[in-house]
Amino acid sequence: MILINTIDSPVDVYDGAADGLLPAAAFLSQNYPNPFNPATAIEFSLPGRARATVMIFNIKGQQVRRLLDEERPAGNHVVFWDGRDDSGNQAATGVYLYRLQAGEVVETRKMLLLK
Questions:
Q1: Which stretch of DSSP H or E encloses residue 96?
Q2: Strand order across the beta sheet in which 50-58 lies
């Protein structure tokens, strides 16, 4: 395993290719912990190199935070959300949606921020 950043950064990456295990398909895992306060981890897998975008939306569908928008290698990855919006303001308690878009794959899951 390769851990590149710490939880202090909004993005932390584990590249599963280092241990020879590549995922068969793109997949977005449930965040953990859930519910969370103050931060949560969002894991996803890519079967091949792809541009990966991970975004957070409120329940109204409004973008709250863009966590990741860059090309990533095949493997398993994780990003952290610190509960803040793109302006650095603390998000309110509530249900949020997070979405992975990688190539033609788009997956969305729910999470709960509690204060």
A1: strand 94-102
A2: 63-72, 50-58, 94-102, 105-113
CA distance 21 to 4: 18
- Look at the pTM and tell me if it is higher than 0.85: no
Say what the alpha-carbon torsion angle 38, 84, 75, 49 is, to the nearest 10 degrees.
Answer: 180
Nearest residue to 7 (alpha-carbon basis) of 63, 83, 58: 83
Provide the CA 3 distance to its chain's centre, in angstroms. Answer: 15
Domains of the chain: 11-113 (2.60.40.4070)
Mean pLDDT value across residues 7-30: 65
